[in-house]
Specification:
alpha+beta, Immunoglobulin-like, 2 domains, six-stranded mixed beta sheet, 13 strands, 27% helix, XRE family transcriptional regulator
Length: 315
Amino acid sequence: MRHATEHADVPTAELDTALRGGPFHVALRAAIAARGLPLQRVQHHLSRHGVKVGVTSLSYWQQGARRPQRPESLRAVRALEEILRLPDESLIRLLAKSDERATADRPAGRSYRSLIEASGVVDRLTAGLGWSLDGGLHTVGHHERVGIGARRELVSREAHHIVRAHRDGVDRFVALHHGDPGCDPRRVTVHALENCRTGRLRWDQETGILVAELLFGTRLGAGDTFLFRYAIEDGTAGTSREYLQRFGFPGGQYALQVRFDTGTLPVRCHRFAQHSAAAPRSGRQELPVTSPHHSAHLVEPRIRPGALGIAWDWE
């Protein structure tokens, strides 16, 4: 049994404050810094405890970009408490506290648990296509147009990508569609519109996730730019209340336009940002629904890791 006195050799004010009030990622980052351990050494210590966690995952955890949620990840957190000489349950307690705060701050919609499950599903589906991390592409520009139908459902979305390869040999992109609750990904259609063709499709029925391989028909060299467009037809789910896009890496401009059916307009719209699935939403800004186009839009000059989107309220 470990006690608080056992971490007296890391008595930094930042660490003590973070352990008392959190959040989890701040406390983890402070504890690693106080111990003076590079992430590779932390990973080595974890492996000696019989726990396998990648350096990338550790980095995401201490940045707040991802949170440990699976049983193996929670084992790693408990091992980290011992490796970093922290009190028993100190990091686990902060995880639970963050869950409660995130639930209170998040509007009605997908739960934190469903978002975490979706993240795992996306990792599994994209890995099955041989796609990992950013796929060798840097986003120069990303423009999306989303259509909301007469039944208040997400009918369609069209994406226009401008990318730059940062390694040789890139010849594809994997697009993600996460439908609203009730989405049937088997009935969702992917259309390659410009400079690409549709390859393999994979989906998960329970979460309503579809991933689609878009083949460029050419191999890019490092530094090459490429433009392509695709569209997705959905219309299989229930009422849509928001659309968001997640970004794992920084990049160029992102623009999102949501267009509503003329006979079914929301009472209000706003933009929002979210650093991670567990974080509260921030950057709220009311958006007008312009006429005669019945649409709302946002433009972000520089993409940052996290999520950015538009939410709306119906009567």
